[in-house]
Amino acid sequence: MATEVSAASMRKLLNDPADVVKESLAGLAAAHARVLRYDAEAQILTRTDAPVSGKVALISGGGSGHEPLHGGFVGKGMLDAACPGEVFTSPVPDQMLAATKAVDGGAGVIHIVKNYTGDVMNFKLAAEDAADEGIHVESVLVDDDVAVQDSLYTAGRRGVGATVLLEKIAGASAERGDDLSTVAAIARRVNERARSFGIALSSCTPPAAGRPIFDLPVGEVELGIGIHGEPGRRRGPLGTARELAREMVEPVLSDLKPGGSRVLAFVNGMGGTPELELYLLYHEVDKLLRAAGLEPTRNLVGSYITSLEMAGASVTVLELDDELESLWDAPVDTPALRWGV
Amino acid sequence: MATEVSAASMRKLLNDPADVVKESLAGLAAAHARVLRYDAEAQILTRTDAPVSGKVALISGGGSGHEPLHGGFVGKGMLDAACPGEVFTSPVPDQMLAATKAVDGGAGVIHIVKNYTGDVMNFKLAAEDAADEGIHVESVLVDDDVAVQDSLYTAGRRGVGATVLLEKIAGASAERGDDLSTVAAIARRVNERARSFGIALSSCTPPAAGRPIFDLPVGEVELGIGIHGEPGRRRGPLGTARELAREMVEPVLSDLKPGGSRVLAFVNGMGGTPELELYLLYHEVDKLLRAAGLEPTRNLVGSYITSLEMAGASVTVLELDDELESLWDAPVDTPALRWGV
Amino acid sequence: MGSISVIAWMDEVSAVIAAEADHLTQLDAAIGDGDHGVNLTRGFLAVREAVASSGDLPPGRQLILAGKTLVSTVGGASGPLWGTALRRAGRALGDAPELDGARLADALDAALAGVVELGAAESGDKTMVDALRPAVAALRAAVERGASLAEALEAAGNAAAEGAQATVPMQARKGRASYLGERSIGHEDPGAASTALIVAALGRALSA
Amino acid sequence: MGSISVIAWMDEVSAVIAAEADHLTQLDAAIGDGDHGVNLTRGFLAVREAVASSGDLPPGRQLILAGKTLVSTVGGASGPLWGTALRRAGRALGDAPELDGARLADALDAALAGVVELGAAESGDKTMVDALRPAVAALRAAVERGASLAEALEAAGNAAAEGAQATVPMQARKGRASYLGERSIGHEDPGAASTALIVAALGRALSA
Ligand SMILES: Nc1ncnc2c1ncn2[C@@H]1O[C@H](COP(=O)(O)OP(=O)(O)O)[C@@H](O)[C@H]1O
Ligand SMILES: Nc1ncnc2c1ncn2[C@@H]1O[C@H](COP(=O)(O)OP(=O)(O)O)[C@@H](O)[C@H]1O
Ligand SMILES: [Mg+2]
Ligand SMILES: [Mg+2]
Ligand SMILES: [Mg+2]
Ligand SMILES: [Mg+2]
């Protein structure tokens, strides 16, 4: 690299910027040895009891910098393995193949792929390799971001907040013993019934780049951002939480067109927005949903799919039915989501 | 106020800065109606099943801006009630008295008080009021911050990270049916055996103030900060995570002088530091503890006692024994900590 | 000789604190947590309303009400401290019909004693005590030498302002600022600054 | 006529990409996620080492090894795309002992086809294809009109650079930049910029 980037040039806790991902994964594994294992060679995380014989295995992966996604969701009732790439960079097929082989319990493996060009291509190459080795892989694409319009003229909708919900619900489906096509169908149902919209109040600084991806003056907001620190679709004056909630919920609902009335409301922090504000935003979202005739019978509030230390939030609405609701409630035991265990 | 502060003058999701706390509490209660209730009149949060007859009740409180502390820790196995003040401002005795009355199940009430002048005085007035009403209140002071030196010439050590551990462990003690003096003794044991040290990589902006409390250039670190956005004891150049971990762990251990070898290691984010960095820091802390002959048999990594969106972290080490370990492991069902349920 | 109207005093305090809130908060940001101006503004606004709508109470009762209202609305360190101060002042007055010079000196003595009892700060610790104690002493001295209440209040106001100013070179030993150790030196204590404003407001609450 | 040394090419690419990494990353920060320079630097460093230590392989095998190494080390969009490109180029060469002009034109044709097959980008979508396609065409045309390899490579390099420059006014329709819609207009595509560097490096890998 041409420029010298070091820990001291950013407000970050790190050693060498090149080692951030590996060192963080080592910490995650040290803290959660009961739940998951880190294979530093293959650069993958697997649940401690993998492979679980006869169970459909779920793996996901993507660039790092979105923690707890995906590593924090490895464990009983959710992912069997995660493949973390460099910050904001899709992992490579070797990782995905190693993960696929490590967790295959004979009932097939599902690749949960967020719809980004890099992720899609790398997972595609990995799936081809896995097929060569006789492992049945089924890919499920997540593309819930309604901020991406005219998807004919783009790489298509991005996979954002729905990823978390899908990994939890499909994980529960696999855990209760559903077969490959059932788990895949449930995962796809979650994706079809979920929509998201995100906003940024600040940029973020990838460690290797050493400076913010974009400049955003105080008092302005990027609307329709993804999770890679990329600018949004447009920029506007920063309104109140009430106004921002409307700017997020409206496109979500008008695209989702929920048929039923029960929903899961997910208010997600981008990494640098504290809980105080997330719950304040949840309050606004909850009111808007009820005003639209929807009842948020389940919710999730917190920073679960992030862009490093970016300030901002996203809203995901998932239309529920009895089965999705009970799969959401099923026990889960991962570093970042845990209940019933 | 002389200056006009509005949502748009900060990178924050809010409506009127004066309403931040109330609106956020309403959101917390809406999201976690299963676990807790918000009494907007009395400005307190109580667990849904309060008062639990025959159980010692635990209440805590303090300024807001430290979320999930304390509201996120209300629920079975932890706090019976929380009294949130304005941002960084101790709550008032009326709140504490209302909470005390709301959760008193006849077995006495413990006030968990972080050692700040304001908190101590307000809780003192409340305890006097409660005594007037015939409720047996026992106060437990938390003062684990080794960054405060010469405590004869200061307001004494601050209560920081140990608060979270104490609320969990004393909550489990109360839940299993221990009497008032036992719960108080266990709480005090946690405080005596825990030490903390915190650092800031950025300041934070209280909503009502509208600007950062202090200026901290990139590349510098405030060492020995508390949780109110106040500057630390000294400022230094920002080193690597490895160096920073040593600057935190060393004063903690040399003050704690652990007799045993088992510890709980708590790496806490100040609000604006993402999980990627917290786990990287945990990795360093874990190594340092082991090098010092200690085994972190339990750990907690995440943003649990924060300063709004401040970037930074704190390290708390709690010396464990069998009883503290099993109380830590006991079921807990709160918005921010949940397991076994 | 003249006397103090508690309603007018609280009106004046409420106005000046609100006007200076930003300055107080900035002082607090430098060595504390940046909420002092907001805290007192909230409190004295509530006090002003409570006292104004409390009907025809003797000044001692009004001060007790003011103190309780502060305790119930401010929080932080300054709430219990100023709340206790005003409650003690009120109790010292009892049901006296008027707040004249001698009674004011007694009341402020009691207020100071309450602050010291609760907060245990000594002079030189860089707290509101460093403004309040000289003010009380100056008022007492002026009253004893037979000065007019107006003159006595001016002396008290000056002493409070000087006391506040004198906190600049001090190292804090109480409250949040004490955590900064030597870094607290060179900044005026916010509580001392607000105390000077509150004392000075007495001069504007004097009725003939 | 001269031929290309794959080892020298990868050496040159590795050096120029490392030198321009910051620039590429800044281009990517403007309309993507700010990792393109870092991604390719990591990848081509690994390629350089792999190819240099792979012993005496024919150029086609070296390119396949380079492509596999890119796929295994880069990730993101550029890893599979350039990885596939080099693998396809290598397969097209087979075990040919030398990478002369005609073979290079065939190899780059295959590379382009691989990129298009995997990424489905068309010309004008503001991707690396907008630099690669004109480069391949220019090379083919120069070789067919009998130009020297050096001249052909210069023509290819110029065409790639012009192609990259031409992405500035385009609106992205593929990859991450497409999410920006009209806001992607006015910025050079990072993948096209790096492609121009990679093609230009061929000229420095020419042995007599
Ligand atoms: N122990 C004490 N005795 C007297 N005054 C104190 C004491 N501790 C703090 N103070 C005063 O309180 C002021 C701070 O008030 P405020 O900012 O409202 O509360 P907090 O420190 O809780 O945020 C200080 O500037 C100081 O004058
Ligand atoms: N579908 C595609 N076809 C061809 N090239 C593409 C396609 N998608 C992206 N690219 C190229 O990849 C470049 C970005 O690479 P890089 O930054 O390494 O990956 P990522 O976008 O995953 O971060 C873009 O500038 C573009 O030239
Ligand atoms: Mg990328
Ligand atoms: Mg305060
Ligand atoms: Mg303060
Ligand atoms: Mg990129």
UniProtKB/TrEMBL annotation, chains A, B:
Presence of keyword Kinase: yes
Gene Ontology cellular-component terms listed: cytosol
Domain DhaK as annotated: residue spans: 16-339
Pfam families documented for this protein: Dak1 (PF02733)
InterPro entries reported in the protein's UniProt record: DhaK_1 (IPR012736), DhaK_dom (IPR004006), Dihydroxyacetone_Kinase (IPR050861)
Annotated EC: 2.7.1.121
Top enzyme class: transferase
UniProt superkingdom: Bacteria
GO MF term list: glycerone kinase activity; phosphoenolpyruvate-glycerone phosphotransferase activity
UniProt cross-references to SUPFAM superfamilies, sorted A to Z: DAK1/DegV-like (SSF82549)
Keyword set, alphabetical order: Kinase, Transferase
Gene3D superfamilies according to UniProt: Dihydroxyacetone kinase, domain 1 (3.40.50.10440), Dihydroxyacetone kinase, domain 2 (3.30.1180.20)
GO terms classed as biological process: glycerol catabolic process
NCBIfam families linked to this entry: dhaK1 (TIGR02363)
Protein name: Dihydroxyacetone kinase subunit DhaK
Source organism of this protein record: Solirubrobacter ginsenosidimutans
Underlying gene: dhaK
UniProtKB/TrEMBL annotation, chains C, D:
Gene Ontology CC, one term: cytosol
Entry keyword annotation includes Kinase: yes
Domain DhaL: 4-204
SUPFAM superfamilies: DhaL-like
Keywords for the protein's UniProt record, in alphabetical order: Kinase, Transferase
Pfam families: Dak2
Record-linked Gene3D superfamilies: 1.25.40.340
Top-rank taxon, per record: Bacteria
Molecular function as annotated in GO: glycerone kinase activity
BP GO terms, sorted: glycerol catabolic process
UniProt protein name: Dihydroxyacetone kinase subunit DhaL
Organism (species): Solirubrobacter ginsenosidimutans
Gene this chain is encoded by: dhaL
